[in-house]
Amino acid sequence: MDVGSEHAVRPALGPLDAVVEVPGSKSIANRALVCAMLADGVSVLRNVPAGDDTMAMLACIEQLGAGVARDFVNVDVHGTAGRLRPGPLSLDSQLAGTTSRFVTALCALGTGEYTIDGLPPLRGRPMAPLHDALAALGVGVQPGETWGHLPVTVVALDRADASTTTRATVSIRGDVSSQYITALMLIGPYLRGGLRIELTTPLVSRPYIGITAAVMASFGVNGVVVGDDAVTVPAGVYTAQDYEIEPDASSASYPLAAAAICGGRVRVPGLGPHALQGDAAFADVLGEMGCNVSRDETGTTVARDVPLIGVTIDMADLSDLVPTLAVVAAFATTPTIISGVGFIRHKESDRLGDLSSELRKCGIDAGESDDGMRIAPGLGSGAALDTHHDHRLAMAFGVMGLGLAGVRVRDPEVVSKSWPQFWVALDAMSLERGEVAR
After folding, report:
1. Rounded CA gap, 218 and 228, in Å?
2. CA neighbours within 13 Å on the CB side: how many for 263?
3. Least enclosed by CB within 10 Å: which of 60, 246, 404, 405?
4. Considering 53, 248, 320, 354, which one is annotated as catalytic?
């Protein structure tokens, strides 16, 4: 599809009966790639997603000295044993916020200067909490244009001599993006004495911090403590691993939501009861709305054969899935009220304002508040909807189009950020009931 094109969503023919395989978790993959890059030896990462964010991370760690060999969904990473290729280097994050933040922190462990940049929409996204924290650790942080935004040049720490790296302590707000805290956690073991990250406000998106700690433990750094007031990271080194990346729970929300909207059943293989990702709990939210949810070691299934009801929910721990829940809520018989997510206004889009305005184009009564939104029952008719450069809006609108005729999603290729084959999978759900959608 050409940039600026539209994808006309095919409404489902009736209740669904589908098995949908989703990509590996990009959240887990990018964390694992940093650990594998810093490890001594060769790690094998399995079920690595092919989305733009992961591709940007692979390109950056290769520039920083890791050996990378990809065979479809598996990637061999030849680690650097904590020794990055010296700067000056220029690293391109494309549109990947996660990559830009993780790589900015990672470059603090190198030698020389590293310039991190991205495409114009990424330059507009805030980075100041991370840049402030790195500067407090003694890292040179030189903005290319505006403080707290890309491009930025990092002048690496002198880890041999800098006393600021001895049992370092840094302060950061807990109610900003968890990616800032994760970026610091990932480099923490390589600072002398480790790192204590003091939280000056309550921690949001706690499940993502839990993912980071779990991935670090899988690569040999145990003992990360996540508390209400601080995150403590011990000194240590990562060890090479053979590591399986579980299916992406955020991506799984879309086919599971399709079952809620259309009725019938949808199963996502591989997303079992022991998933690391907090977003796996989205299925339980659908359960509160009237769906039947079942999990076993082979996957998660959502089915619906009764009307949906709305929910009142704090989604601070499921913030990426606000667009998914919002489109499901439009098909419910009672209102849905979402709170606790004011910080998602600074994601790829304003995920409260932009989402609400697009839903209203379809006659949906959606209104935003300071920290959430309210969606009342009732549907109008499908319309051409803008994605605002946001893959999560695009995929949520696509799922809505299974149950609301006439939905057209502009700039549909934005889904390549996390699930390049999303539209193929969506069409398979609507037309090939009972077939495996990939």
Report:
1. 23
2. 7
3. 405
4. 320
